[in-house]
Design goal:
Four Helix Bundle (Hemerythrin (Met), subunit A), Arc Repressor Mutant, subunit A, 2 domains, homodimer, DNA-binding, globular, three-stranded antiparallel sheet, 10 helices, mainly alpha
DNA sequence: CCGTTCATTTATGTATACAAAGTTCAAGGA
DNA sequence: TCCTTGAACTTTGTATACATAAATGAACGG
């Protein structure tokens, strides 16, 4: 049957999972928001079964917290929590570049250069959304170059909790020049297949990211404290 | 109501999850075994709902593989797969000892010494089961000393796929003296709060483990090949 | 006026029923 | 003999119904 392309029907649970995940990452469902099965089911037009399964998946990724007999809520993002994630990500990102130095193919290097250039073009436009996307893609090239499937999926799930901050982080970065420089240094180190240099550059890259994200969380918390003192804002 | 201790009723899904996990890790359900919902439900005396949820949890941990509209099966353990896991674990174990050097309390050090001594006593008995357990506990002390909850849960899920081999690994280890020595070196480094030494000792420790596990997987695969050539064994 | 208790409500935990997709195997024709 | 076809069966996907625990609030008593 030529030309007949199978439209892939992905199961409802996956569809629901994607929708919920998106809603959480964009902040539509803020931390602490309760996720009630019947309510979500009505809203999305499906029964409780796929909702439950989607929520379980989100729980295992750490985006929602479940309390038995109580229900699910969007995970609170605490400073400690984010700090823990970043600590682990630092080690894994360094592992990624080290492995990439050993294993990247010439095609991979070409792809990496392209991603770097694309990132620099994005920075030139000053469009935060585009910059964030190019940044993700740049890192994905490196991660894929490791050829380690477990590492790839771990990096994926560890970067989730930070997506809410990545956008602001990009804007916050006082001048994007640092980001561009850091990316260049990392590419150079990988091209030369120099794991030590790549590792140290990556460490610095993450440390900068950490500082920015931590500052933001503190700001956010202060704001919350103010709200608590001067009046609770209505929730939807 | 003094003395009245609440017996914790854990939900059926968790109970099922534990049972299935145990069955997979002990090899009762070998890799490739299909996990059918009604069948398991009959066997365990529960409906499909908790079974499904337990299977989803196992899938996210990598112990079972799901194919849409086809069902779940116990994940195949390939050399590549295990190699990927070990590569990640090496990086995280090293992170653990480095953090432990910074953060371990004096109580923690006392606990660590106790775990080390307990391990040595276990080795003296030559009881593989006991040795394996003492080994796990030793590493857990270090992991907990990091105070990083995300790291703790990651280490937990990454060590799962190896449990099937750990037991054999202990037996295989030609003389347990190496293990004892390695543990001692790690404890010494942590006591002196020397992250570099701790990291290098841990790296070596994991590399030894890796060699042993890889050898075993190859042996197992050869055996399978023989079976395939000379006759298929019946599956339950 | 405050605290306790009990009924009501709400949401989750679990079971079951129905729908649809995939697999298997046998029958029929080239 | 081999390939095709289709019907029965198996198994998952989804919806719904029932059971049970927690939270809420009102009524009663001190």
């Amino acid at each position: 049957m030529p030309g007949a392309k199978e439209e892939d029907f992905l199961p409802l649970r996956d569809s629901v999972y994607n929708k919920l995940r998106q809603a959480i990452l964009t902040g539509e469902y803020p931390p602490g928001e309760r996720l009630m099965e019947v309510h979500l089911g009505d809203k999305l037009g499906v029964s409780r079964t796929p909702i439950r399964e989607a929520i379980r998946m989100l729980e295992l990724e750490g985006l929602v917290t479940m309390i038995p007999r109580k229900g699910a809520m969007v995970s609170q993002i605490t400073e400690k929590n984010m700090s823990d994630v970043l600590e682990v990500r630092r080690a894994l990102d360094i592992l990624c570049v080290q492995l990439a130095c050993e294993r990247i193919t010439s095609d991979g290097i070409a792809e990496l250069r392209k991603a770097r250039d694309n990132f620099e073009r994005a920075v030139a436009t000053n469009d935060s959304r585009r910059i964030a996307q190019a940044d993700v893609e740049f890192h994905n090239v490196i991660i894929r170059a490791t050829g380690n499937d477990r590492l790839i999926s771990l990096e994926d799930s560890l970067s989730l909790p930070m997506y809410r901050y990545r956008y602001e982080y990009i804007k916050d970065s006082s001048g994007h020049d640092n980001l561009v420089k850091e990316h260049r240094k990392i590419v150079n180190a990988i091209e030369k297949r120099n794991p030590e240099a790549a590792a140290s550059e990556t460490g610095e890259h993450i440390d900068n990211q950490r500082r920015s994200i931590m500052r933001q969380i503190r700001l956010e918390r202060e704001e919350e404290t103010m709200n608590a003192l001067y009046g609770k804002r209505t929730i939807r």
